[in-house]
Amino acid sequence: MNLDDWAQVYVSEDRRRRFREVLARRLDCLTLVFEHVGDPRNVSACLRVADAFGLGRVIHYADGRYHRNHQISMHSDLWVDVLNYQRFEDTVDRVRRDGFALVGTVVDDPAAIPFDQLEPPPRTALVLGSEHDGLTPEMRAACDHLVTIPTCGFADSLNLATAAAILVRHFAEACRQRGGPGVLLDPAEQERLYRLWIERDARLKLRKRGIQAEF
Q1: How far is the C-alpha of 191 from the C-alpha of 166, rounded, in Å?
Q2: Which of 67, 65, 85 is nearest to 77 (CA)?
Q3: Would you state the pLDDT for residue 60?
């Protein structure tokens, strides 16, 4: 039996339909970049945000790799790819190579503007810094734009996942409203991910039943 045969048996029609629906709304024009976020639980919470609003890939720049926490991510890290980098130059090079403009999120920088006043670049990488120190000076200098989330209370900043939710929701909707080529995943990439998700689901179901399958 090939993959399609196994999927017909072990991956329900509703599940396959859901894969197609999610992939049809996945954005290709927006990503998140984490710079030295110390608590992996914060990254997990942000992955849940990324998945919820249609992002399929994020970049994790830190000394170590991202470690999954399914209780916090609610398994969103199964559907969002995490690219790990340990060098600043490699991180920025990857973002630039993929055609993204770096939009850094800061609390206190005279060069920053409110996030909703920025005209989103065609391909936007939202950069989130560490919980205590924010973005490093070198990352700020590398960013094409700096934005803030204005507040009007005693708290002048938000926790990482809350900030990510506000920013990703805003920029994701701006991308969708703009429309045009490059906003959503192209059909070939949708099909690649669909096959990958189907295979993963089928293998998981087969493994639970103690069935060895080759496909």
Answers
A1: 30
A2: 67
A3: 95
Exposure on the CB side of residue 25, measured as CA atoms within 13 A: 13
Alpha-helical runs (H) found in 53-126: 70-73, 88-97
Q: In this structure, what token pair is assigned to residue 128?
A: 């989130």
Q: How many CB atoms lie within 10 A of CB 2?
A: 9
Q: Which residue has the tokens 């991910």?
A: 193
Burial of 9 (0-12, 13-18, 19+ CB in 10 A): exposed
Contacts of 12 (CB under 8 A, 6+ apart): none
* CB 206 within 8 Å of CB 1: no
Q: What per-residue confidence (pLDDT) applies to 24?
A: 97
pLDDT above 90 (res 17)? yes
CATH number at 28-184: 3.40.1280.10
Exposure of 95 in the CB half-sphere (CA atoms within 13 A): 32
In DSSP terms, 57 is beta-bridged to 81
| Model pTM score | 0.91
- Which residue in 26, 24, 27, 80 sits closest to 57, CA to CA? 80
State the average pLDDT over residues 163-174.
Answer: 98
Amino acid at 196: L
The torsion angle over the Cα atoms of residues 191, 52, 81 and 1, rounded to 10 degrees, is -40
Looking up tokens 């992996």 gives 40
Q: Over 90: is that where the pLDDT of 73 sits?
A: no
